[in-house]
Amino acid sequence: MTVRELRLVVTAADYEEALRFYRDTLGLPERAAYSSPDGRVTILEAGRATLEIADPAQAEFIDRVEVGRRVAGRIRVAFEVDDSPAVTRKLEEAGAEVVAEPVRTPWNSLNSRLEGPAGLQLTLFTELEAEKEES
């Protein structure tokens, strides 16, 4: 048995707002869109997918590092971006609430936390590994 794709399915009360935010502002390319008399769905590409499993203690530690306190629910979506401070500003201008500004983490990435459309808590992260290797 082989899993070929991880697809996170989000139900958004304001479908158009969520689509504008994730596709148009964050820049996730549209793979496909379907509609029926019963509704609509759009599938957006998000690069490589991983499933990160954390126990409650580690989830609390991540929140303390990124935000300073426990704020995430059971699900948080993390996007690797080239410039987390710039993307944080861009998403804030598009209506996301900044929960925490970018911070350097112990695992050498620059992470910010936002509340996005459809009630998703988002981490934006930029890996700083190349910077570490150049030093």
UniProtKB/TrEMBL annotation:
Domain VOC stretches: 4-127
| Entry protein name | VOC domain-containing protein
The UniProt entry, under InterPro entries, shows: Glyas_Bleomycin-R_OHBP_Dase (IPR029068), Glyas_Fos-R_dOase_dom (IPR004360), VOC_core (IPR037523)
